[in-house]
Design brief:
Elements lengths: L16 E5 L3 H11 L4 E5 L2 H10 L4 E4 L8 H9 L8 E6 L4 H10 L3 E4 L4 H25 L10 H18 L3 E8 L2 H8 L1 H18 L5 E6 L2 E7 L3 H15 L3 E2 L2 E2 L2 E8 L6 H17 L5 E6 L6
Parallel strand pairs: 1-2, 1-3, 3-4, 4-5, 11-12
Antiparallel strand pairs: 6-8, 6-11, 7-8, 9-10
Amino acid sequence: MTMPNTSPTPAPPSSPSILLVDDDAEIREALGELLGGRYRLTFARDGAEAMAALCLQEFDLSILDLSLPIVDGFGLVKAIQGNGELSRSAVMVLSGHTAPELKVRALALGAVDYMTKPFDADELMARVARILATVTREAELRADAMTDALTGLANARNFTRSLERELERAQRHKLPLSILTVDLDHLKLINDQHGHDAGDDALCLVARVLAGAVRKFEVVARQGGDEFAVILPNTTSLAAGQLAERLCGELRTLTVKGHRLSASIGVASWNESPIDLAALLKASDEALYRAKDAGRDRVEIAVARGATST
């Protein structure tokens, strides 16, 4: 393989991230010199180290050998492309094995490319760049499909997927989980009196308040129309209610075209009792309806205790 002689400068923090998995120290060093100036690199010497790294962070691409200690390359490809706890990434196999049946097997398991050793540096760089360009395009398309165009928040589809994941995690680890269903009061009145541009401004203000009030790992979504939702992992009903009250208070300080904003909020929580996603959503929705029926601009809390109760 032909290699450049210059040492790379560190890649910018925004660069794509690559996991390099090889038990040969010379190969790891060579790949580091070749790719380190353009990409953020993490190294693993065997399949176990690779799986540990994949549990801890997201990678845009994993470049791995087939002949690895502990967990071989085929096992890694299968694990990365599966539905387990590992982060998913594109996979490129870089192997000394040239048998066609091994290449076919790796590609069938989900690898996007297969390159043999010894490798040409220019060819490897070109293949890596091509894979990462595809990964970036696909990520942008997925983001567009999961984002509300007006507010930039997660959309309803994204919210449902996120809630399914968080509910499963909460039940598995016996952690609390709460959700808020937030309805902007009197949006129709704003639209009728001041036009839909004013209504959009009001929705964007609400989105900004909600997004600014949560932690990084919490999900804020626009469900459509005047309704929003917030997923609060590891949050009790009491803490979720306190947050909802703060949100109501902050929204009262905002105006659009002289119209004071307000919101009605329903809170529901999982508390280690059997419940499914539909029941949790129903509990939050019914709490929201009680808030609206009671005069709006208020919070109602319903602790979901089972699949058919609220």
